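Per your request, structure below.
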């Protein structure tokens, strides 16, 4: 069976970075493959590399199995597949002798020499070992094998929200709220444990075949800090989902920052696009701090008045206007799903549609906050 072209391209790029092949050799292989494809004679990079004598077939097969030597030999486990990769680590599915699957996160060799990266990696492993909640991925053993840092986690059967959106487009509102409700439960649990996730986004939310939700990747997670003792820092997380205070590099983050990121996730789920557009991360960070939500998207009739309200409140620039904790959000979602109330839109307000009345309620909240200052 021919190797997957995308996986093969990633592998050969990694072989170049690791010095197993030179950059020039890899560039020539890509050029030859493209030329052969244009001539109607497609051939894989692997076949070209073996044919040219750059690498032998058995070593290449081993490199495929080990993801370019990123996966050390794990006694008692067989590598099944790659589940994902971030800037500092890869996640793989492995299987033991009894046929049980687990996920293992392995710190990239290139960053393992950085004590700060190792410390953060081990801290995430210890945190996942401590946490116990049905909507948070569970961690297991942590250690070193052949000089490589790794830890095991439960293997979640399903796909990320990012994958679901890419494959199926925008969610219907009821389905989106059911997902957001489960993530809110996870965030409430983290709040009770004194933890801020700091990287809530569709790529870090898994949905199983039976629609159970798991919040994953706590690599940026940290403890809640009191404002009095907070010091500024760099903005860590994913630019398109950063709260304004996180984008500014504030250290006094709390669950309201995660609620903002969850609101940005809800926005993408129901509208099929990001809240802000930009050419690079720097522009997205600036918009998180300065730009308002696009009225064209949120008031175009593509979402309901109640969905507009949820998004506006979760993504308010002023964190004192947002939901103050996940329980408030959970209550509103549960009541919306059950149809028991209309999010407390005042009945004496007549004229205009529901979205406009919800907007006026948010305006009143903002004015009230300003009067208190």
């Amino acid at each position: 069976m021919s190797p997957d072209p995308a996986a093969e391209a990633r592998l050969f790029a990694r072989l170049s970075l690791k010095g197993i092949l030179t950059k020039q050799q890899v560039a020539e292989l890509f050029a030859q493959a493209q030329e052969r494809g244009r001539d109607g004679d497609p051939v894989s990079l692997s076949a070209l590399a073996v044919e040219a004598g750059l690498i032998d077939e058995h070593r290449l097969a081993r490199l495929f199995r080990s993801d370019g030597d990123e996966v050390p030999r794990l006694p008692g486990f067989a590598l099944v597949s790659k589940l994902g990769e971030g800037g500092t680590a890869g996640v793989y599915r492995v299987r033991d002798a009894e046929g049980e699957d687990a996920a293992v996160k392995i710190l990239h060799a290139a960053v393992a020499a950085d004590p700060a990266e190792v410390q953060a990696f081990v801290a995430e492993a210890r945190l996942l070992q401590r946490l116990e909640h049905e909507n948070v991925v569970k961690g297991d053993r942590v250690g070193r094998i052949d000089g490589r840092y790794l830890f095991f986690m439960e293997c979640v059967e399903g796909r990320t929200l990012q994958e679901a959106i890419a494959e199926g487009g925008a969610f219907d509102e009821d389905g989106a709220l059911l997902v957001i409700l489960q993530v809110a439960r996870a965030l409430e649990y983290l709040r009770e444990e004194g933890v801020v996730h700091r990287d809530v986004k569709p790529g870090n939310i898994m949905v199983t075949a039976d629609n159970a939700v798991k919040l994953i990747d706590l690599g940026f997670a940290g403890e809640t800090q009191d404002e009095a003792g907070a010091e500024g820092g760099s903005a860590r997380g994913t630019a398109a989902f950063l709260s304004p205070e996180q984008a500014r590099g504030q250290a006094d983050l709390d669950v309201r920052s995660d609620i903002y990121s969850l609101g940005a996730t809800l926005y993408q789920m129901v509208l099929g696009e990001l809240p802000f557009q930009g050419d690079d991360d720097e522009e997205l960070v600036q918009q998180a701090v300065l730009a308002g939500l696009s009225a064209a998207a949120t008031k175009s009739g593509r979402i309901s008045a109640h969905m507009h309200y949820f998004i506006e409140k979760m993504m308010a620039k002023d964190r004192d206007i947002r939901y103050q904790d996940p329980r408030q959000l959970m209550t509103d979602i549960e009541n919306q799903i059950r149809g028991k109330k209309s999010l407390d839109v005042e009945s004496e307000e007549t004229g205009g549609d529901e979205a406009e009345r919800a907007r006026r309620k948010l305006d009143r909240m903002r004015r009230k906050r300003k009067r208190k200052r």
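Residues 226-233, 340-352 have pLDDT under 50 and may be disordered.

Regards,
D.
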